[in-house]
Amino acid sequence: MKLEHATAWSLLPILTLSILSVATVPIYYHSLGSDYYALWFAIQTMTGTFGFMDLGLGVATGRYVGVALGRGDFSAARETWASGNLFNLFLLAVMAAIFASFGSWWGPRWFSFPSTERPLFVQCVWWSAGSLFLNYYGQGWQVLLQAHLEFRWLALSRTLFSLMTGLGMAWCAWAFRSPLPCIMLGTTIAALQLGAMVHRAKSKHQMGFFFTLARWTRLKEMRSYTAKTFCSLLSGAALGSLDRWLLGRIAASDAFVAYNIGSNLAARVQGLSVAAMGPIFHGSTRGVGQGDRAQLADIYLQSLRMMAPVYLAGALWATAWQWPWLQVWLGPEAAMRVAPVLPYLLWAAAWSALMNISGAQLGPLNLVGFGTWVQSCSWLLSGFLLWIGWRMDGLAGAGAGLMLGRVLLFFQDRRVRRQLGVCLPDGAFLSRILLFPGATLLFWLPASLFSLPLKAQLGLSLGHGLFFGWLILRLRRPFGKKG
Length: 483
Known about the structure:
The protein has helices spanning 3-49, 57-71, 74-110, 118-147, 151-176, 179-205, 216-221, 223-239, 242-250, 253-271, 274-289, 293-330, 332-338, 342-362, 368-405, 410-420, 426-433, 435-450, 454-474, and strands at residues 422-423, 481-482. The chain is mainly α. It has 2 domains: 1-223, no CATH class; 240-483, no CATH class.
């Protein structure tokens, strides 16, 4: 399957979930209120911090299975899968129990919400522990299917379950006015999705649990790579949510909710790039297994050609037109809280999304350690600058600090490009970039100079978006060349 086709299929469930998440925010905001919504965001912050639950074994197993399939060694692929799957099952059960115990004790002591809500918080934490186990164990089966290039089936099934989860949880919030039924429903659907992936792997690829094929030698073979991946995941888990941990401690509920609404929207925008990371990662592992570095360079350039115009145009469009659309989306009161911080978060997400291209190739190139170091420095700098920005200018300053800290990710991208022998012609790249701000200025100026009413601004913004879409299609030519 071609990279563009695989990415398009992988994009479908992420795009569906992103649209649902954005569309249902007003339901959650008005149904749960600031206190319950802040409580739910606090739990999401905690679950994000446990992103190292499988210690990196799931990704490592996927890499070695993909390399074995690239060599045509199906026996090694089965043994590798069986070994990683058995250890992962036990490990995730233990980690879920630790999360439930730790979250129940530490969460109410750290986050700022009324003491009357603590029993509800504890119940939500325990159900979230079950959801964490099912989702992370399911990711192992998802990676296995991706290693077999099952992007189409995964896209369709994940889209179906995303619809069930998004619509069902929104209905629970509206009907019960509490986050607990939402989390309970999400856990139930995660169990159904896991069952579907297990059935597909067994029936289509004859890849079952195979516990009897587990070998210590296969685990030892993955030990070094798993350790590097674990360090990367641990860094991301501990530092990737640093902004929300800090603001959850120092900000009031309404400010914390406003930041998280903007942050979640930015995360959905950045999450679209994850659709390309699966095909990039597994295509690159096949290339490594075949000893073809030129294939990895082609994958990098194809991904950049697909993603760079979209993210640049999207960030410019959102910066110009965020205010009218925030009013339609959230209402004037909530829009006024979110507007100061949203542009900074979106630009940080756009930059991080482009860096996901090189990030997805760190594993196949065995550069996970370097990537962990760069990303850790970026998150630490973002957290430090966010804290300074908060003290200087509230939410807007916090967003600006977060955005500035992401600049360090350039060094990760530069290292991968040098490893692959990819160079970017600055003249061609900049000539395309300059078209986007020029077009944005032409559409935005009338609304700014003449104080057009809301409907007129929305109409101009839609015309601007359509023009950007046409422009992106016209400019789909390589941004760089191998050299």
